[in-house]
Amino acid sequence: MTNALAYLLEINRQIDPLQDITRLCQRSCELTAAGLTLPDNVIYLYQTDHSLRQIAAAGSKYQPGAGVVAPLQLVPGQGVVGTVAMQQSSLCIADTSDYGNYITDDATRPAELAVPICYQGELLGVIDAEHPQAGFFTSEHQCFLEGLAAMLAPRIANLAARLRLQRRSIHPVRKAQTVKPGVQHKLSRRLTEQEFSQQLNHWLKHYYTERQWQAAGLTALALLQALPDVSAVRIDCMKQLICTQIEQMQQYDATALWGRILHARYIGRRVDQLTLAAECHMAFSTLRRHQGLALAYLQAQLWRQELDARQACGVN
């Protein structure tokens, strides 16, 4: 812990390019667990239903390609995390067996340290760390996690606000009955289905190198027409649409494998095909076949959304 500030700066450097809340929190969890030698580190985010849900983790709570295992959902006041959320102040427990409000997640661990993530007085989430050694956490650990929370808070708030703005901007387009002045001209060079498929493959391949994204392909989409004519905003929105669809794929048995493959290949760890085939316990050719099916399914779902957006704004 003697180089705590230097390590916080390293975490800041590594998370700075990330434009997705879940990935931002996941990478922070991984780096924190590695730096503090923690077997368990979780980030909860405060939801619109006033609950706290685990959205990122390091250790046994996280499964590569699938995300948080059996994500726990709490309400303010419930457990150490809920107490921290309600009080908006850190809580360090030397021995959880002496704490009556302790809630066991994947395993019972004596030491627990929870720190709130707050921005301008608003609760955004909680960083929660546990350790099997009683009395493990010190004031230095607490300062470190509080520093991390202060670093994450404005990023999470900014990304959440941007996402809300994007959603509000898209929805009116879907409800419009007529084409607004200038929209017909903008959509006159709309993409064909084949061009859309090619663009999607390009966007996935260069998911984290925005400079490789082609602005022309984004401006030709009815899905994004209500957004400001700013490449960064359009890229962020398209990324969110892709992520949302892949997350939905993972929620259904019929497409769960495809969703995991796409997430591992392009969104999460960006695993190469040979490694991913080994992790999935399948032949390389089988992995390639499933990846092709997954891409085709993703393309079909997003293309359907594009057609719906075109119909909503009166453009064929």
What order do the helices and strands come in, and which of them pair?
Elements: H1 4-15, H2 21-36, E1 40-46, E2 52-59, E3 62-63, E4 67-68, E5 73-74, H3 79-87, E6 91-93, E7 111-119, E8 122-131, H4 139-175, H5 183-187, H6 193-205, H7 215-219, H8 231-250, H9 256-267, H10 273-279, H11 284-312
Antiparallel strand pairs: 1-2, 1-8, 2-5, 3-4, 6-7, 7-8
Shape assignment: globular
In spatial order, strands of the major sheet run: 5-2-1-8-7-6
CATH fold topology of the largest domain: Beta-Lactamase
Terminal residue distance? 61 Å
Number of strands: 8
Helix fraction by DSSP (H/I, runs of at least 4)? 40-55%
- Overall CATH architecture of the largest domain: 2-Layer Sandwich
Query: How large is the share of residues in beta strands?
Result: 5-15%
| Average residue pLDDT | 84
Number of DSSP helices? 11
The total tally of domains equals 2
Largest sheet: 6 strands, antiparallel
Order of helices and strands: HHEEEEEHEEEHHHHHHHH
Structural class: alpha+beta
User: Which residues form runs of ≥5 with pLDDT under 50?
Assistant: 172-188
Short précis:
By secondary structure, this protein is α+β, with helices and mostly antiparallel strands.
Report on this model:
The chain is of the alpha+beta class and 316 residues long. The protein folds into 2 domains: 4-161, Beta-Lactamase, CATH 3.30.450.40; 177-312, no CATH class. It contains 11 helices and 8 strands. Helix 1 packs antiparallel against helix 2 and helix 2 runs antiparallel to helix 4 (139-175). The longest helix is centred in the middle third of the chain and has 37 residues, at 139-175.
